[in-house]
Backbone:
DNA sequence: CGTCTAATTGAGCCCGTTCAAGCAATGTGG
DNA sequence: CCACATTGCTTGAACGGGCTCAATTAGACG
């Protein structure tokens, strides 16, 4: 295995059940290889035939769907350790696109690997389902935000959630986290217009709740911002249990 | 197995891979039993300890989350064949409630059954993951709607989506489908106010696009409504493939 | 016949939208 | 080295979709 494999759900992570020697070999068998992608490139294209899926090893990405008339909804932001392209394989149709937000490195698997996992590596398969369930949870949270929260609350919620996700995946250093996103992307994630996002954001900035410059995010008072965003304190354990 | 078991993902469904004799026995072993719930009752309580999960055999239900201040977001509506309470077990925390919309019958499983499935019945485990992935897909679609569509488009989208779901689960008869929901529930699902939902709905009614009376829904022109709601024609196959 | 819940309709306001202009940083070609 | 285009951020002004408040109606139930 190469660099960063410790965050791959199919690899050996202390947070997860350790794979056996045999499992490792089987994984390596179906592991097509690693892939580097530049910022701004499409990792997954809307409507494409689902053949492979990926583990995001380094960098950040964005998953979105575009309506016929051009309106776009960002579904979520992806962090190291996240899976990409599993849903399309399960459902047989790629209904969203994934774009790299920074230089990204991916671990590439063939779709046949999925069944191999279920057949021969139940712990890996369980792990995989756990990831899908977690993503479902995040989508639900986003839906709550877009549906019920005000613009100010939504922004606050988004920053806190992203911050917490960033910490879980080890992207926060010195109280700073890379967040290479345009305001337009954030607006599309929250169902707001660019203009209003900007104005609401500048208010949060003037209150010293958010510092976001040059693609780097800082939250001087994460808990205060969480209160603004009505973020419930539910913590998702990294470790799943049976 | 008792009535309606053919729709249970853990049972023998022609759309799915048939379970072996041994699988059937193992499922029955962990199947706690059947449960009947009246309309309006809570099947799953927010914050409860996740111990069991269910298959919805008959009737309809609603999954929602409530914010501290009372605002409520309906996450989705549940149809026969859907799983209930799997996400909480996987993630260790029940962050949403599920309420019966009609008299409901459920098949009850113990949470230990999940691991049994991964360990001994890979086809069932795969099936289960497929269900989670499908639910993730629907949540994504809902997020797109709430985030990008206008009230009119949202309503149209919702009716068409529910209609299609209803047809897949065999709830449509004579061009009619039971839809035992208050306007308030629909409003909370779409992030709209009750008043605006009502006014938009009455417009759709006057255009003969929607007929919804006494808990029964009819769509005289499903395709026209789909055009109003910008529903993409992507069809999720009932049959998954490997 | 009073009470309760759900649907309906009107009036007025506001949050978030669209339109529009300006600015700063970066890049590109002559 | 400058002219010019491009991309993203910022800000002002005005409109409007959807909100809140409020009152009425209709049906179900005791």
Residues:
């Amino acid at each position: 295995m190469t660099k960063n494999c410790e965050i791959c759900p199919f690899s050996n992570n202390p947070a997860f059940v350790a794979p056996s020697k045999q499992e490792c070999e089987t994984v390596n068998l179906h592991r097509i290889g690693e892939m580097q992608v530049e910022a701004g490139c499409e990792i997954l294209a809307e409507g494409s035939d689902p053949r492979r899926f990926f583990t995001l090893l380094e960098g950040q990405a964005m998953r979105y769907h575009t309506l016929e008339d051009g309106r776009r909804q960002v579904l979520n932001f992806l962090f190291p350790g996240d899976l990409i392209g599993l849903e399309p394989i399960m459902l047989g149709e790629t209904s969203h696109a994934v774009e790299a937000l920074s230089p990204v490195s991916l671990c590439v698997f063939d779709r046949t690997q999925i069944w191999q996992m279920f057949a021969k590596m139940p712990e890996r398969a369980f792990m995989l389902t756990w990831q899908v369930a977690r993503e479902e949870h995040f989508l639900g949270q986003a839906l709550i935000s877009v549906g019920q929260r005000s613009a100010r609350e939504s922004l606050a919620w988004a920053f806190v959630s992203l911050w917490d996700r960033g910490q879980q995946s080890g992207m926060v250093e010195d109280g700073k986290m890379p967040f290479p996103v345009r305001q337009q992307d954030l607006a599309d994630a929250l169902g707001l217009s660019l203009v209003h996002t900007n104005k609401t954001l500048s208010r949060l900035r003037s209150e010293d709740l958010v510092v976001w410059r040059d693609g780097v995010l800082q939250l001087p008072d994460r808990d205060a911002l969480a209160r603004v965003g009505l973020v419930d304190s539910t913590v998702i354990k990294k470790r799943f249990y049976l």
About this structure: Residues 12-20 of chain B have pLDDT under 50 and may be disordered. The first strand of chain B starts at residue 31 and ends at 37. Chain B has two domains: 5-141, 149-228. The helical segments of chain B are 21-30, 86-91, 112-120, 122-148, 151-168, 183-190, 194-206, 222-228.
